[in-house]
Design brief:
Layout (H helix, E strand, L loop, with lengths): L6 H9 L26 H4 L4 H18 L3 H15 L13 H9 L3 H4 L5 H9 L5 H13 L6 H11 L5 H10 L7 H18 L6 H10 L23 H11 L4 H12 L6 H20 L1 H17 L2
Helix pairs in contact: 3-5, 3-10, 3-11, 4-8, 10-11, 11-12, 13-14, 14-15
Length: 315
């Protein structure tokens, strides 16, 4: 059976000449940074609550910080940061901006921005209570874009976490570990990146950063089965429990159940398990809904119509 040779080998044997072997350019694996993907579609935006935008902004920042920890992916982080900080005021929605930019726009936006989200009324209420640290965010982005070292990363991430009302324990662990990443053991690095991957796949599945994070994990063997997936994949509603809302809840659950109802709502919003005593406080509302369902389709349709009217009145 005849042996098979490559074109280069035949050229060398038969003609005494050689064929130049193409040299792969450094960083050829880096794709052009895409325009926003997750925030580009109006349909996607209408499925996001204000709380969703806060979580996704925070996760995007953590991913960019993770990419910046590795020299091979630092250029990716540099380019993404440049695209994000090109419009550093975050005052306008930009289809050509990155998802991180547009999440910052929605978190820091005006009423027009809130009207683009799933529940504009609730989003506006949440927006009034949120103060995004724009100056620190821009400073951090510009530092990554220039390839410099941002000396206040830990303080910035802590402040951002507080401003966005991030309560997820896994996200807090990732944040703490990223601020001392070089000192972590290989196991802790794997756990950190895996936690971030799990969150990104649940919350940023179609974003412009998740592919780069997946490549980082695959290239450096950073994904492990040790970490449990605790991520809810549903949108987190904008549940507010200010004094006015709580006072009105007394007409539904009764005055004696107000504090238990507040705790129930806060824990439910965070996707945490709710102790039985707090569930008991919300039982009157559940019983009311159950009575309506059992009364039949006509009453359910009335409830749905009333719900739509209530949402419209909050815009």
């Amino acid at each position: 059976m005849a042996e098979k040779f490559t074109a280069t080998e035949w050229a060398t044997m038969e003609g005494g000449h050689s064929i130049d072997t193409p040299i792969e350019k450094p960083f050829a694996f880096i794709k052009d940074i895409h325009e926003a993907r997750l925030t580009r579609s109006e349909g996607n935006l209408k499925s996001l609550s204000y709380t969703d935008c806060c979580e996704r902004l925070y996760l995007s920042v953590l991913i960019l910080e993770a990419l910046n920890q590795y020299a091979f992916f630092r250029r990716t982080a540099n380019e993404y940061a440049k695209r994000t900080t090109g419009y550093d005021t975050f005052k306008a929605y930009r289809m050509s901006g990155t998802d991180l930019y547009n999440f910052a726009y929605f978190v820091n936006g005006d009423n027009d921005a809130m009207d683009k989200l799933k529940d504009p009324g609730a989003a506006k209420a949440m927006r009034q209570r949120t103060n995004l640290p724009i100056m620190q965010l821009n400073g951090w982005l510009k530092s990554i874009a220039s390839g410099g070292v941002y000396t206040q990363t830990s303080a910035f991430l802590i402040r951002l976490e507080g401003a966005l009302n991030i309560r997820n324990a896994d996200y807090k662990i990732v944040r703490r570990n990223l601020t001392r990443y070089k000192a972590l053991s290989t196991k802790d690095k794997q756990d950190t990146i895996t936690r971030l991957l799990i969150a990104a796949r649940a919350k940023l599945r179609t974003s412009d950063l998740v592919d780069d994070l997946s490549k980082l994990a695959a290239t450096n063997d950073l994904e492990t089965a040790r970490v449990k997936d605790n991520e809810p994949t549903v949108s987190v509603p904008d549940i507010t429990t200010n004094a006015r809302d709580l006072s009105l809840y007394r007409y539904v659950v009764g005055t004696n159940n107000l504090m238990r109802t507040k705790n129930f709502l806060n824990l439910a919003k965070q996707g945490k398990s709710v102790p039985g005593q707090f569930v008991q406080g919300y039982v009157p509302a559940i019983k009311m809904l159950d009575d309506i369902v059992k009364a039949g389709p006509a009453y359910i349709n009335l409830l749905r119509a009333l719900h739509q009217r209530a949402k419209m009145s909050r815009k």
